């Protein structure tokens, strides 16, 4: 029986690093976080899109994703781990993968006219075509798409013309290939680029869905053009409001022939265009932050049988069917749903006809979340610290972000709430430690006692709110007052990764060091030496945590994969908890049950321990990467939050454990016997029927 039950998930935001990270099919859409793919599916009963699954097989940054054009259950992804994965979405499983595809694919696209073939490219090529059903034997090179002068930033196969292909380059040029015709390499660069010799990368390109020759192209600086790829001519160039505005992404609107939308780089302005008109029909500011990617779905509606129906595009050409409007005509928005992702990680589904969000998940982290902590005076508010340089505060009752720090802090490794202020202290890789005033929305203090060294941990003293401790790669643990006065600076022989204040003694502090030792310092003395040094770990010690309920008891997690329980009064290791297969990071004592401990590890798991006998009473595998942070609030001791390199925060319930604990107290039997009984009897015992 599982002790930890996942009851909530704060999804990661969409990554801003790569371009092809948003895709959709009729009743599904997906976006890429750094290490996972989030797939949403239309719930036909409630007529809304809901999170369907999270695919997290990749071990390094995902670089591209593409949905199969004919089979909505097949999705492809590529990653910096030099692996291409083919997923079966409905079955939520990996179908197959191509390892070591000769590099890291930056762009992928399905070959429309060979059902099982995916193509990919990196840098200057060549373009590879892989029939995934044939395994590695199905890999071949395109005969002509190679030998380019510039890296490829985008490419698209034509959906109608067999074998027709366009590639966009970082210098702003295009390369065109069509069977039976001479290849055209590095053509149609924007004219202004030719004059200045400045590169103007192709950031987006899409074939006209109703034409065999027309192509919509966006360059980073020049803007958007409609091109005739047969005659190599520009049909129209589209004018933006000012030279300071640029387009980051675009898409055709399938329910409105000749219409397309663009998303601005500088701000979240969605612009609606029609092919003949060089200025936008509509300019809609949907968000403050700039766009990263978008994809347009046709509108879904409910018919008389309450079934979902998608409107279909009319079969004709975009130019012939394009809507012509004068400036005085009121514009009626075409029916369309637009999947929007933003540079700050935000993801939403915008209903164009209604001019409103069907849903918007704002402010998601886009990188590893290293730490999470509940606000001392509010069990609904959870703060998270991330590699992306931001702290975010979430309301877990609504699962929404309510505050975010200004950002640009580099890597934020750790955070700690002030016990009596609406402030958070955070430690960073190169920007020292700072205090963020949430109410005022700004950083109010900075501390640089560690110089340019990384600060791995920060701890605000809960018994004396004037003191804050930090430890870092310079081998020091520094204690200062909030106003900046240095209290102590404890030197260690190697980098210090963890520090924690005793919850029963305001002058007691423990540290974890790369030299494999745990140290306990007492500030009330004048000595710079530790009162105790605990040895036993065989690799570096990372976090240390004092028990909130048992005075003198603390635990430490190590790269040796173990957690050790130390008794300060006995000068000894009371217990070694073994089970993790990789370094231990997250540590959490339960604030209600004194012998209950949770740990998170690089082996992707969270383990629940009984520290009386060292038994691992539960292991959960839900996270898709290293688990770094674990926390709970004393007012809700059986609600736990965890954070991970998979960029998610997960909320867990320990309620099943409470029932089992009650049984164990009554039965007075060991854990192993209790679990054997509960596993055999299933839910009947928990319900009190046995």
TrEMBL record:
The keyword Repeat applies. InterPro entries: Quinoprotein_ADH-like_sf, WD40/YVTN_repeat-like_dom_sf, WD40_PAC1, WD40_repeat_CS, WD40_repeat_dom_sf, WD40_rpt. It holds the Pfam family WD40. WD repeats lie at residues 55-97, 362-404, 405-446, 534-576, 577-619. The keyword Glycosyltransferase does not apply. Keywords: Repeat, WD repeat. SMART domains: WD40. This is WD repeat-containing protein 17-like isoform X2.
């Amino acid at each position: 029986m599982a002790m930890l039950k996942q009851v909530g998930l704060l999804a990661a935001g969409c990554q801003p690093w790569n371009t092809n990270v948003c895709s959709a099919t009729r009743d599904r859409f997906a976006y890429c976080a750094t290490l996972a793919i989030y797939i949403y599916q239309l719930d036909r009963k409630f007529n809304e899109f809901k999170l369907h699954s999270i695919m997290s097989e990749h071990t390094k940054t995902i670089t591209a994703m593409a949905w199969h054009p004919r089979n909505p259950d097949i999705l492809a992804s590529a990653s910096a781990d030099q692996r291409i994965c083919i997923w079966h979405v409905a079955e939520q499983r990996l179908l197959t993968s191509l390892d070591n595809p000769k590099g890291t694919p930056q762009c992928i696209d399905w070959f429309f006219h060979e059902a099982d073939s995916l193509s990919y490219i990196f840098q200057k090529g060549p373009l590879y075509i892989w029939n995934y059903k044939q395994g590695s034997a199905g890999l071949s090179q395109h005969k002509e798409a190679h030998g380019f002068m510039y890296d490829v930033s985008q490419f698209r196969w034509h959906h109608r013309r067999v074998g027709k292909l366009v590639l966009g380059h970082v210098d702003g040029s295009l390369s065109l290939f069509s069977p039976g015709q001479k290849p055209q390499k590095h053509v149609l660069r924007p004219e202004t680029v030719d004059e200045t010799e400045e590169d103007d990368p192709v950031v987006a390109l899409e074939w006209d869905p109703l034409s065999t020759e027309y192509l919509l192209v966006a360059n980073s600086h020049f803007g958007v053009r409609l091109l005739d790829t047969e005659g190599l001519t520009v049909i129209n160039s589209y004018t933006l409001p000012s030279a300071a505005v640029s387009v980051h992404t675009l898409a055709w609107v399938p329910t409105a022939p000749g219409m397309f939308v663009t998303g601005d780089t500088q701000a979240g302005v969605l612009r609606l265009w029609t092919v003949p008109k060089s200025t936008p029909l509509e300019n809609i500011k949907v968000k403050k932050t700039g766009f990263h990617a978008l994809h347009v779905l046709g509108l879904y509606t409910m018919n008389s049988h309450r079934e979902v129906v998608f409107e279909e595009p009319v079969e004709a050409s975009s130019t012939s069917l394009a809507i012509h409007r004068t400036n005085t005509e009121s514009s009626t928005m075409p029916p369309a749903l637009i999947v929007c992702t933003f540079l700050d990680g935000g993801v939403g589904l915008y209903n164009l006809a209604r001019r409103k969000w069907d849903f918007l998940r704002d402010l998601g982290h886009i990188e590893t979340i290293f730490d999470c902590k509940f606000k001392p005076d509010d069990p609904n508010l959870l703060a998270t610290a991330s590699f992306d340089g931001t702290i975010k505060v979430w309301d877990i009752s609504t699962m929404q972000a309510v505050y975010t720090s200004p950002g640009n802090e580099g890597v934020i490794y750790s955070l700690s709430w002030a016990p009596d202020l609406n402030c958070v202290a955070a430690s960073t890789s190169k920007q020292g430690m700072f205090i963020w005033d949430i109410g005022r929305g700004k950083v109010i203090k900075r501390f640089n006692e560690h110089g340019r060294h990384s600060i791995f941990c920060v701890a605000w003293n809960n018994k004396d709110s004037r003191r804050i401790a930090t430890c870092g790669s310079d081998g020091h643990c520094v204690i200062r007052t909030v106003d900046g006065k240095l209290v102590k600076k404890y030197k260690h022989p190697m980098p210090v990764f963890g520090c924690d204040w005793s919850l029963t003694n305001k002058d007691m502090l423990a540290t974890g060091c790369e030299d494999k030792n745990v140290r306990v310092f007492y500030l009330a003395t004048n000595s710079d030496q530790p009162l105790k040094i605990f040895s036993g770990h065989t690799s570096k010690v990372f976090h240390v945590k004092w028990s909130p309920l048992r005075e003198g008891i603390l635990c430490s997690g190590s790269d040796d994969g173990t957690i050790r329980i130390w008794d300060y009064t006995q000068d000894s290791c009371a217990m070694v908890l073994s089970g993790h297969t990789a370094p231990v990071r997250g540590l959490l004592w339960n604030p209600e049950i004194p012998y209950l401990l949770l740990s998170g590890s690089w082996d992707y798991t969270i383990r629940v321990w009984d520290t009386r006998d060292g038994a691992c009473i539960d292991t959960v595998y839900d996270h898709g990467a290293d688990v770094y942070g674990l926390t709970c609030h004393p007012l809700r001791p059986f609600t736990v939050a965890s954070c991970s390199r998979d960029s998610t925060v997960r909320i867990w319930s320990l309620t099943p454990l409470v029932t089992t604990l009650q049984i164990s107290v009554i039965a007075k039997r060991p854990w192993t016997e209790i679990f054997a009984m509960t596993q055999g009897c299933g839910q009947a015992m928990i319900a009190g029927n046995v």
